[in-house]
Structure prediction request, 460 residues.
Amino acid sequence: MTDVVNEPTNPPELARLGLPRVLGTDSRCTLADGRDVRVVQLNNAATTPPFERTVREVQEFLGCYGALHRGAGPRARATVEAVERAVRRIRSFIGQPEDNALLFTANTSAAINALARLLSLDTDDVVLTSEIEHTSNNLPWRYNTPARVLDVRANDAGTLDLDHLDQLFAEHLGRVRLLAVTGASNLTGFCPDLSALAARCHDAGALLFVDAAQLAPHRRIDMASAGVDALAFSAHKVYAPFGLGVLSLPRTVLDRRPVDPGGGSIDMIADTGAVVWAPPAERHQTGTWNATGILGLGASCATILDAGWNLLEGVERDLVARAASALSDIPGVRLTVPAASYRADDRIGTFPFVVDGLHHALVAAALEHEYGIEVRAGTICNHRLVRRWVGADDAEQARVEAAIAGGDRLASYGIVRASLACHSTTDDIDRLADALRSLATHGPAARYRAAPEHETYEPA
Ligand SMILES: Cc1ncc(COP(=O)(O)O)c(C=O)c1O
Prediction:
């Protein structure tokens, strides 16, 4: 795909519904055969384009941008006020409990690493995660805590095995400090029942942490009423790509020396080295805050809350049903999560699939260059479930690992993922289904060469 041209208008279908305007929904590109088409953005689980209102509010803010918490004057005051308003919007977006504090980080991955280090876990402690987690909700617990980390099992469609969860709580009675679970899977779209998980955690004396990176753009979050103790998400997946991760956590966790001390962490330091730490909620927010990121996220949160979750969730649920049925009906294309699961469970619009006989990265390249459709291909940071789907045994796994270590990143098994957002349309889904029907029947029309270093195929 070349020459992307950006025309920031919302398709009439979305404008009619009263959905927020998103920049770039009418981007166009030139295909391999020279045709000019509208770009179909179906890689929203990776990142979303910005809301028009978010960009406007950021632009207005930059006109008065000044020192945040580091000076006096009208611009500094305006900046403090704008950031405080944004923080209130973010708190209300997630229904943050009164006793929680917000910490800002670079992204969700950094937020989960920060939480792992802040919790002061011990070698006797147990952290439960699950087989459906993104790598960012697995590795921090393994590498940044001394705790024993155990995975709750999942079935092939990616739903959690709650009997196994109960069994793990019983086997490690009194030692499970935390269940760290995704709010919506980046691979299968599955959304666990958070209230039910919170009740189980609290009965066992454990905290519930929710990785809401995928949940936040798609479902109303109410931490307080669901009983979620801690939660993280990224602004760039909530239509606010200005950097920023959010960590909401109980204030009690912050009543300790900061894990990353520096400017802003202290109120006084003596020549002897004695330190008076800043109040708990501030001492962990080291260095100058990302005011633009906070403001942008606050604007996106307000945009969603003003549009109303009933509208957004309703529109997305209809699209999910339509996509599940459209993608389940194409000879040679297999949804790796059965279409029926999208009716049986609560699922956001995230669809993993394979095309018979075609490498996943080749499918993604052909969708891009021949049809103007953006998707993602690979193991999507969820290696274990993908491995299970492709049925790679230990010998195959060892072969793949050796090939990747040798530089062939295309040696990995994988799937293709199409993911919807609030700016997705029925036309997007139809374009994807038509393209897959043609690809599965005729294969790619253009010629491609493998680019293993980038884990992709490029036009030859
Ligand atoms: C469920 C989930 N958790 C965590 C992350 C990591 O988010 P970030 O890349 O913003 O750190 C992602 C990113 O795709 C995700 O989908």
